[in-house]
Amino acid sequence: MRILVTGGAGFIGSHTCDRLVQLGHEVTILDALTAPVHRDGRPDYVTPGAEMVVGDVRDRDLVRRLLRRTDAVYHLAAYQDYLPDFARFTDVNVGSTSLLYELVLEEGLSLHRVVVASSQSAMGEGLYLCARDGEQVPDMRSEADLARGRWELRCPECGGDMVLQRTPERVSNPQNAYGMSKFGEEMVAVNLGRRYDIPTTALRYSIVQGPRQSVYNAYSGACRIFNLHYLLGSAPVLYEDGQAIRDYVNIHDVVDANVLVLTDDRAVGRVYNVGGGVAYTTAEFAEVVRRQHGSDLEPRVSGEFRFGDTRHIVSDIDRLSGLGWAPTRTPADSVAEYAAWLEGTPDLDRILADADTRMRSLGVVRKVLV
Hints:
It is globular and about 60 Å long. It has eleven helices and 17 strands. A seven-stranded parallel β-sheet has the order 3-2-1-4-5-9-13, sandwiched between helices. It has helices at residues 11-22, 60-67, 86-107, 143-147, 177-195, 222-231, 251-263, 282-293, 318-321, 331-342, 348-361, and strands at residues 2-6, 26-31, 51-54, 72-75, 113-119, 128-130, 134-136, 162-164, 200-205, 207-209, 237-238, 245-250, 270-274, 279-281, 300-301, 304-306, 365-367. The protein has a single domain (2-367), classed as Rossmann fold (3-Layer(aba) Sandwich). The termini are far apart. By secondary structure, it is an alpha/beta fold.
């Protein structure tokens, strides 16, 4: 097939392009190569054998021309970093997706598949169970609670304790600008796909890890941040109490999922979680990184939090497993591969300092008051 991959020079996109070329597909990459991810322009790992087009996914004429010679699309381009750039999230993530479907319809194109990158963040704080009041999908934590170090969510009905559940795709409750934009993108893609018979699948990625993850984002990437600290001989900071829970998925498992839904017709019109299948606290994940580097330095809890963070979220991957997919790599595998990839990268100490300065200047990192 002739496949267009937007964001194909990025982390998930480049690995996906590698696999598609290996499978014999004709791949065209559309990527704007914008900072901070591509601070130094075109990366040296862009897939050999793929055509590279530098441009914006919101450029109507450019996208139209590329779609006219395309059989399938992976729409992976996005603005991502959780910082308070509210308008940009919507403009890039929702706007580009809407344009894609508008042009497919306008041109009367018959695509084999459109695969859209969504995010675990579309589920917000996820699904919980209260012993008295049953299933709950809690709202965001208040700034007042966070400032007082009250990390755990309480039942919105009775105020009691709740137990975290693996969150299925039926739960959608985004609570930060990035998550809202990815849920908006997902809704646009799946619903327009159904209405206009454009075969579409949306994939909600959990925290994806592995080589080529940009070192330049200010906010995202525990694997990136913890590896940088230990590589530079310092101890990473754990926000809140270090007990926030996540699931981490390896980049190669994500590519397996991307390739699977390209040809499996059971995936059309559906949303799928792509997760690691195992829950880790932030402290547990930091220990994986510490062991990789053989460091004696324990992570430190700083008494700070990042405003807008989700407390706990773990994706239920049963739906995608029903198509025959399963994660086969561990966070230790991801960390080892990422650490090896980082070696030799210049100016790493400046990267950490610049990211911390930017998050503090924007009010993302805040101090517990009492």
